[in-house]
Design brief:
By secondary structure, the chain is mostly helical. The protein is 51% helix and 0% strand. It is elongated and about 45 Å long.
């Protein structure tokens, strides 16, 4: 389990933290998607 703490007085902070939290919960890309990305970038594994 992880905890994320963010302390700031910036007005956009709640939006930014909500976006970061939601991004952290996203399901990772399937391996096939990463292979396509690497091929597109000319990276060989």
């Amino acid at each position: 389990m992880y905890h994320m703490i963010h302390a700031t007085d910036h007005q956009e902070a709640p939006k930014l933290m909500a976006r970061a939290y939601n991004k952290a919960l996203e399901i990772p890309e399937p391996p096939e998607q990463l292979e396509l990305l690497f091929q597109q970038q000319g990276i060989t594994l």
